[in-house]
Design brief:
single chain, Na+/H+ antiporter like fold, mainly alpha, 262 residues
């Protein structure tokens, strides 16, 4: 985890709520703030938690029994632990192995590894997004900056494409009835985020103002909320418009509050 928290915010390659938060940190010039490593660490822990949560929810929705649930969670935990071990103990060797002077070779190697691991993760009912995330954790050193430079445009393209296709599935008329519940959920979760960031920052010895900044910077939500809601569409179709309204509300509220409480 230490290797992750030392990276500047500008190098972040998250696609979910982390993408919105990382852009806000970059635009506001907060990469060097004392609370920034804390914010990035919380985002990483959230995404790691999704590695266990998503397959668990998927199995429960499919009606799997206890053995299937245990197997799914065990696979997810094993994948996360292996990725962390590789990143901590063999990250430097792995990065040297894939390093090359040619941008084309770097691009094809990293992109191929992401597709391979994401495909394997999906095969074992672990989110493909988590599989790709674990590849990013396993890379350290100069290769991180190269990957960010080469894959940054693809990240933005795929993120935009994801939300585009999600938007095609939403009937704007369904957003209005979903607004009261979405706004209520947004306010409640925003308060919990601020409390989490503030409490964590104060435990690290960061001053009160920095604690509030950390909490506010964690408010924005992203595509993992949509993915989770999509898993439950078969049971409750109204989750999709609620999730869309919820994400849009916090994606706007988070950056606005971060700028107000600079």
């Amino acid at each position: 985890m230490e290797a992750v928290t030392q990276r500047p915010a500008r190098r972040s390659t998250y696609i979910s709520s982390s993408g919105v938060i990382a852009k806000v940190l970059n635009e506001l010039g907060r990469s060097g703030n004392p609370e920034t490593p804390l914010v990035l660490s919380v985002l990483v822990i959230e995404d790691l938690a999704m590695a266990v949560y998503l397959p668990l929810v998927g199995v429960l929705l499919l009606g799997g029994g206890l053995p299937k649930i245990v197997l799914s969670v065990a696979i997810a935990l094993t994948a996360v632990i292996l990725a962390l071990v590789v990143a901590v103990r063999y990250g430097g060797r792995r990065s040297k192995f894939v390093s090359h002077e040619s941008d084309e070779i770097i691009l094809l190697t990293i992109f191929g590894a992401v597709l391979l691991v994401a495909g394997v993760a999906e095969h074992f009912q672990v989110s493909a997004a988590i599989g790709a995330f674990l590849v990013g954790i396993a890379l350290t050193g100069p290769i991180v900056e190269q990957s960010h430079r080469l894959l940054g445009p693809l990240r933005d393209l795929f993120a935009a494409t994801f939300f585009f296709f999600f938007g095609l599935e939403i009937n704007p008329a369904t957003l209005v009835p979903a607004l009261p519940l979405a706004l209520t959920l947004g306010i409640v979760t925003a308060i919990t985020k601020v409390a989490t960031g503030y409490w964590s920052a104060r435990r690290m010895g960061i001053d009160q103002r920095g604690g509030f900044r950390a909490g506010i910077e964690l408010i924005a939500r992203g595509e993992f909320s949509i993915v989770i809601a999509s898993l439950g569409v078969a049971i409750e179709p109204r989750l999709v418009p609620v999730s869309a309204a919820y994400v849009l509300f916090l994606a706007v509220l988070g950056p606005l509050l971060a700028r107000l409480f600079a």
